[in-house]
Every structure is written in C-alpha cells, then in structure tokens.
Amino acid sequence: QVQLVESGGGLVQAGGSLRLSCAASGGILSSYAMGWFRQAPGKEREFVAAINRSGGSTYYTDSVKGRFTISRDNAKNTVYLQMNSLKPEDTAVYYCAISPKGFGYTTTRLYNYWGQGTQVTVSS
C-alpha cells in the first residue's frame, strides 16, 4: 500500500553537502521506523542510518557518523538524510525503506516498501 519516493541526489564535489528526501504516499510514515541504505556499483546494499517512529532515536553506520543526519517530519510524511563532508566513497544509489519490526535493524531483509533510489555521485 505504501509507496516511497527518494529525491535530492546529484553530483557534488568532495566536501560538499546534499539533503535527500523520502516522501510517502498511501500510508502514514509516523507508524513506522525507517532506514536509509545505499548501494555502490558492484557492492551489496548496506545500511546507512535508522530512525524511530517519533524521530527521537537514531543510529548510524560507523562510516557516516558525524557527517550524516537522519531526521523526519511526520506532518509532511517525509524522512530526510542530510549528508555533509561528502567523500567519493559515499557515491551510491540511496534508498529509503520501512522497518516493519521496529527501530534499529541494519539488515536489508528486515525492511520493506523500498523506494526507487536516488543517485549520489561525489567527485574528488
């Protein structure tokens, strides 16, 4: 029932910033914990960040701690990923997804209702 659409990706130089958005239709995002994942060419999809239903708790993979911030605006039915100090190794397609089991999971198989992804490319 729920459809997720990611946006905000693009081409940016190393050290720059991007803000990704994940907008939902057909459901109320406040009912769900959410996650951001990314997949680089030739690599498995990996966990980036998670947020609980209210937005009061977050969790990040070590490689993005201090640089990325996940947030949500439930009134707008939208989840965000603010990415600062971007590095070439951040280049990937970024996806948002729903965590039906709750907050804090990092495994792709525990998420569903994936968006189509948005491309982030960081040049050196």
3D architecture notes:
The protein has no helices and ten strands. Strands 2-10-9-4-5-6 form a six-stranded mixed sheet, with no helix packed on it. The chain has a four-stranded antiparallel sheet with strand order 1-3-8-7, with no helix packed on it. With 124 residues, it is mostly beta strands. It has strands at residues 3-7, 10-13, 18-25, 33-39, 46-51, 58-60, 68-73, 78-83, 92-99, 118-123. 0% of the residues lie in helices and 48% in strands. The chain is globular, with a radius of gyration of 13 Å.
What is this structure's SSE topology?
Layout lengths: L2 E5 L2 E4 L4 E8 L7 E7 L6 E6 L6 E3 L7 E6 L4 E6 L8 E8 L18 E6 L1
Parallel strand pairs: 2-10
Antiparallel strand pairs: 1-3, 3-8, 4-5, 4-9, 5-6, 7-8, 9-10
Question: How are the strands of the biggest sheet laid out side by side?
Answer: 2-10-9-4-5-6
| Number of H- or I-type helical stretches | 0
Give the overall pLDDT as a whole number.
Answer: 96
Largest sheet properties: 6 strands, mixed
Secondary structural class? mainly beta
